[in-house]
Specification:
Elements lengths: L5 E2 L10 E2 L6 H9 L4 H7 L5 H13 L21 H4 L25
Antiparallel strand pairs: 1-2
Helix pairs in contact: 1-3
């Protein structure tokens, strides 16, 4: 079974996109990030979340820029600290989005080989 990390249900959270297994909306996660919370801080305060869920929420926001325009920097990146390259190593390549999931200016390590 594949988990859909960001869900939208008109009967849950008034239809606001939220993270699987939690009562945290994508907007709330972005606001935490914009207030300087790192992914470690978020996971410490919300142990029900998973790294993949947080990264998926950030990627969801990037795909719905009009909805989250107030939480975006002028260059289109998300405001606040993203994942470090080391934190992003555990994510699939499709979620390692510079300036969105991974901190701006930090490239995820290339696979050895």
């Amino acid at each position: 079974m594949t988990i859909k990390w960001v869900k939208v249900d008109p009967l849950v959270m008034n239809g606001e996109p939220f993270c699987y297994g939690s009562r945290l909306t994508v907007r709330q996660l972005l606001e935490l990030r914009g207030n300087g919370y790192t992914v470690v801080d978020i996971l410490k305060d919300h142990p029900e979340l998973k790294l993949m869920g947080i990264a998926s929420a950030y990627a969801y926001a990037a795909g719905h820029r009009e909805r989250y325009a107030d939480l975006l920097a002028p260059d289109g990146s998300l405001v606040g600290p993203g994942l470090t390259a080391a934190e992003a190593d555990a994510l699939p390549e499709s979620l390692r989005i510079p300036g969105v999931v991974v901190e701006a200016g930090v490239a995820a390590a290339a696979p050895a080989g």
